[in-house]
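Recall the central idea of this unit: under ordinary conditions, the amino acid sequence of a chain determines the structure it adopts. In this exercise we apply that idea directly, starting from the sequence alone.
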Amino acid sequence: MLLINAIQDFAINQEEFEEPFSVIEGIYLGWTPLFVKEQISDRLMSAMGGLDYLSLTNATHPVLFSRIKAKQPDEPLRVLAVMHTYIHQFLHCLWLIKDNSVNADVGFVHSIDSQGKEVASSNSRASVYTCADGCRRKIEYSRAELIEARTLYERLTILGQARTHPSTLNPISQVEPTGTVVTADAVRALTRISYFVNSARDCSDLSVKVAHYSTCLEILFSTDSSEISHKLAERVALFLGQTFEERKRIFNRVKRLYSVRSKVVHGDVFSKASLGRLREISLDADDLLRQLLRLILDSDELCALFEGSKEAREEYFIDLVLQTR
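Accordingly, the structure predicted from this sequence is:
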């Protein structure tokens, strides 16, 4: 079974890579027209049509592909949906490297069913990620950055497999979830953050982007409903800042972005003057959250803390506050 998917707003320095390049286990990156054409059978080319075939093979967008032996060959769309899940998880890891608007295009699958008949299908996931400023632009990733993203993907996968860390990536049984509640107690912190990060990146409204980023901060640093704005600013500043001046700057940054969140969720409006600052605030919120998540993911102890109980985090933050006074 062949699965193939173009990705938009993504570029590489081809001189750094050998084709194909493994981005994650079982999924590879291709980019030259000759190589991509070799992967596409005549049956799949006929099924996808001339425009889609040209889009995949004219070197405009790099292509992700996978060849697998499916246990259920009569469910190619199901397998394609699983591949889309893996791809979007990897796109999240690309965001952990740097802000981007990389998107997965329509995916195609070609397989042989249990009756020996060729089947070709297509599907996509309705997400349009934008950069933190609401724009789309092509971002180039180096070989080292893609390896770093793959390492982060593997890190999250291992966390998901550990018994003490319930899955931090969407389980395969929820490839196309409906009626779910991401804020349920059983959903772990990093899973909820991934959901809201993707929601922020999938939103073109800058104020709503900031509100989603703020929700991620609340997931990590809020343990009760009292004085949320002050506690978030103080805790984030103490957790991330190394000097007094740095902590003070971070404190003010969090207060500023949380004030945007409050206006959004309470239905307030922005003045003409404040609208001009939303782009800067959104970029700042995106950068701040990325720094926090990278710091947490680099530490087994911090992963255990932030995926643990509210009581454990509350005690940690009390100690953090008192130790700096």
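The chain is about 55% helix and 15% strand.
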